[in-house]
Design brief:
Elements: H1 11-44, E1 56-57, E2 63-68, H2 82-101, E3 105-115, E4 124-134, E5 139-148, H3 150-155, E6 159-170, E7 183-184
Parallel strand pairs: 1-7
Antiparallel strand pairs: 2-4, 3-6, 4-5, 5-6
Amino acid sequence: IELDPVNVLSTEDHLEHTLAIERRRIRLGYEQFFQNLMQESSMEGDYYSFEEEDAVSTDLTHVQSIELVQPSHANHHGNTFGGQIMAWMETVASISASRLCRSYPILKSVNMFKFWGPSVVGDRLVFNAIVNNTFQNSVEVGVRVEAYNCEEWIKDQARHINSAFLIFNAVNDKGELLNFPRIKP
C-alpha cells in the first residue's frame, strides 16, 4: 500500500514530522551498525579470548518461556497487542538478568525492538532470553520471540516475530548500583 505524503499544517506538525524523520534515520543507522558489527565479529573468529577464571558462563542466564495468545491478549482483528509481547519480553529478560545480579534488576532501556511479523490468537509464543554482555553497572539481555500456530508447532517451523536488547541495572538496599560479574559467551 502506498501512503499519501504527510501534509504539514502547523509549526508543531512540522516539528513532529522532522523529529520522526530523525528517529527513523537513527533507527536505520543502528541496524547498519549492528550488521557491520556482526560481520566483523564473524571475520575475527577466535581472536578474543574469554577464558577469565571469574567469568560466568552465559549458559546460566538462558531463560525460555512459552505463552499462549488468548483473546484477551489481542485486538479486534485477532493480532496480539504489541504491548503484551513487550511485557512478556521484559519478564523473561528480567529473569535472565537476575541470574547474574542476585537481585531484582531494573529496566533501564530497550534497544532495537523490532516487530518482524504478527502473531494471532491461538499462537504459541516462545521467548528466549540470554545475557549478551555485562558492563560494570549494567547488563544487556537479548530476547528473541518466535511464533507457532498448531501446524507449525508440530512441524517445528517457527516464525521469528520480535527481537530486542534490554539493558538492566540493579541496586542494593541503599539504592547504590550493583556491579555485574564478567561473562563468558
